[in-house]
Design brief:
By secondary structure, this protein is an alpha/beta fold. 34% of the residues lie in helices and 21% in strands. The chain is built from seven helices and ten strands. The chain has an eight-stranded mixed beta sheet, sandwiched between helices. Strands 3-4 form a two-stranded antiparallel sheet. Strand 9, helix 6 and strand 10 form a beta-alpha-beta unit. The two termini are 22 Å apart.
Length: 246
């Protein structure tokens, strides 16, 4: 059993920035002085090792796995177990076994937070996670587009029906604001996050801006600490931490 607060980061569809949000949220929680682990449960679409630029592989001790550490975060992902980005071609039962493997056979120790980077949608992994990790709480990630929030509502509804608390909604890619201007450009529209939070009876925890990636960085998807985006992640981490203290 995972010893610590468990937060599942979910979405209705892919392409909303769920994995980069999981990583940046973990780093922001760490900035608040929390010990944090990321369990990459997006078995088919794993991307956490790439986002964190991890080349190392996990080691074992007495038949248990020692998670890889990067940026002070403990990480476990299917990406560590495959060769040369090979696709995972598994049926449902194998997915459940991998969730059990990542939670019971890894030497996590006691952590303040476990961030579960979930696959999009309401498939086998989501079903198994709700059964195997009943203590988890969830946030739902969407973009401002009404179609994205409409699909994301299904993921939130599934959590609620499974008696998992949805502590909030995060609207990603909310707007773009040039550094030399106060003008905000709502490229993907407005209102999706607010509408989704209303439908799920929860709070809109954050509206994260689009920021141009630093392609000279080894980790372009990680928000640098001097950016407006990092400040938004820090604010989000503070709100989530407060929710867990209630």
């Amino acid at each position: 059993m995972l010893k610590g607060n468990v937060l599942a980061v979910t979405s209705g569809k892919g392409g909303v920035g769920k994995s980069s949000l999981s990583v940046n949220l973990a780093l922001a929680l760490q900035k608040l002085g929390k010990s944090v682990a990321i369990i990459d449960l997006d078995i088919y679409g794993f991307s956490v090792p790439k986002i964190l630029n991890i080349d190392a592989k996990p080691k074992t001790f007495n038949g248990k796995i020692i998670p890889v550490e990067a940026h002070g975060i403990k990480v476990m992902s299917m990406g560590f177990l495959v060769k040369d980005n090979e696709p995972i071609v598994w049926r449902g039962p194998m997915l459940g076994k991998m969730i059990q493997h990542f939670t019971e056979d890894v030497l996590w120790g006691e952590m303040d937070y476990f961030i579960l980077d979930m696959p999009p949608g309401t498939g086998d992994v989501a079903l198994d996670m709700h059964l195997m990790i009943p203590q988890s709480k969830e946030i739902v990630v969407t973009t401002p587009h009404k179609a994205a929030s409409f699909v994301a509502e299904r993921a939130g509804s599934m959590a609620i029906k499974s008696k998992h608390e949805v502590i909030g909604v995060v609207e990603n890619m909310s707007y773009f604001k040039p550094e030399d201007s106060d003008q905000k450009y709502y490229i993907f529209g407005k209102g999706g996050g607010e509408e989704l939070a209303s439908q799920l009876g929860t709070d809109l925890l954050g509206q994260l801006p689009i920021q141009e990636a630093d392609e000279n960085s080894d980790t372009p998807a990680i928000a640098a600490e001097n950016t407006a985006l990092f400040k938004e992640y820090l604010n989000l981490a503070e709100k989530i931490d407060a929710k867990f203290q209630l």
